[in-house]
Amino acid sequence: MNEEFIQRYSRQLILPGFGTKAQQKLAKSKVLVIGAGGLGVPVLQYLCAAGVGRLAIADDDTIELHNLQRQVLYNLEDIGSTKATVAKRKLQALNPLVEVEGWPIRISSKNALYLLDGFDLVIDCTDNLVSRYLINDACFLKKLPMIYGSLFQYEGQLSVFNLLLTDGSRSPNYRDLFPTAPPPGQISDCSEGGVLGVLPGIIGTLMAAEAIKILSETGDVMHSRLYLFDTLHFKSRTLHFSPHPENPLRGHPPLLTELIDYEAFCGIKKSPILMSEEELEPRQLKKWMDNKLEFTLIDVREPGEYHFTSIGGINIPASRLEAGLADIEGKNPLVLLCRSGSRSAASVSLLKEVFPERKIYHLSGGLLAWKAEVDPGFPMY
Fold this sequence. Notes:
By secondary structure, the protein is of the alpha/beta class. It contains 15 helices and 13 strands. It folds into 2 domains: 263 residues, NAD(P)-binding Rossmann-like Domain (Rossmann fold), CATH 3.40.50; 98 residues, 3-Layer(aba) Sandwich (Oxidized Rhodanese, domain 1), CATH 3.40.250.10. About 2% of the residues have low confidence.
């Protein structure tokens, strides 16, 4: 502990119950943060400032203009650069006592176990189900604690999974909350549902606080509990949860002993029941519209997305599709669309059960493909 160390961390060193011992534990700790976006930015900034010894960032995404609304580590000059690279440079400037590594890579079933080697803690700052299940399972297999956070519109949640307890057991994990993935298209990310800009800062800062407590062995860690915060109504609540009997990582023997194909598990890969004739290319849909063919266009995005930008049709969100079936009248072919095509593709099978005699299509690639192939000036988010 030289003079710079003491001066830099003085406000933590004088904390009751923290002091030199906890600060030195932080300085020896090694943390992997997966995702350098909305949640990752405050987590990285505060852990770097707090004095974590080694901080690795895994994210292959590049910085875009819409990121700046909530990812306040970046600015206009950084647009087009890799988040991991920019974050490393700026964090190193914030605290040169911390060893910062920037990995512009995407975690996968092939590299996850290797990437987790040598770390004391993993922090999941991703924004999709595939990564959440993958990171959770990898941490369970590697016997590593992980901090989880997620965001949707005005609400956020966080928990600590797989923490080593005093009796030698591990605390519950993500699969104890959600043993199986929800139906495809039911859960939206920020690009589809939106997010209030300050929310990632709130949840990400709380995640950083949990990380500091785990690494320094101070305080009461948020394990076996799920914290939920609603910024719109300024409400919070804490749910307690226990090991779930259907968690495939548990059992004697466990059903899951290695990493799997998580895109298939989450239903992201194209379902074999969706034949190619059920996909409608953007240019085909444009021709149908120009030729005034009779069909019913159904936009399965959420109302906020639909009112922000649309190409017409009726709005029946995928999350409430069954309740909106009464609005689908007649015998015309149905064409479903969403932002990227995932929610509309997942909705086809449901409508086929209800309307087995009708032709049902979905717009391949969604409105993103429509913008790319039909209307470059179409306002897309």
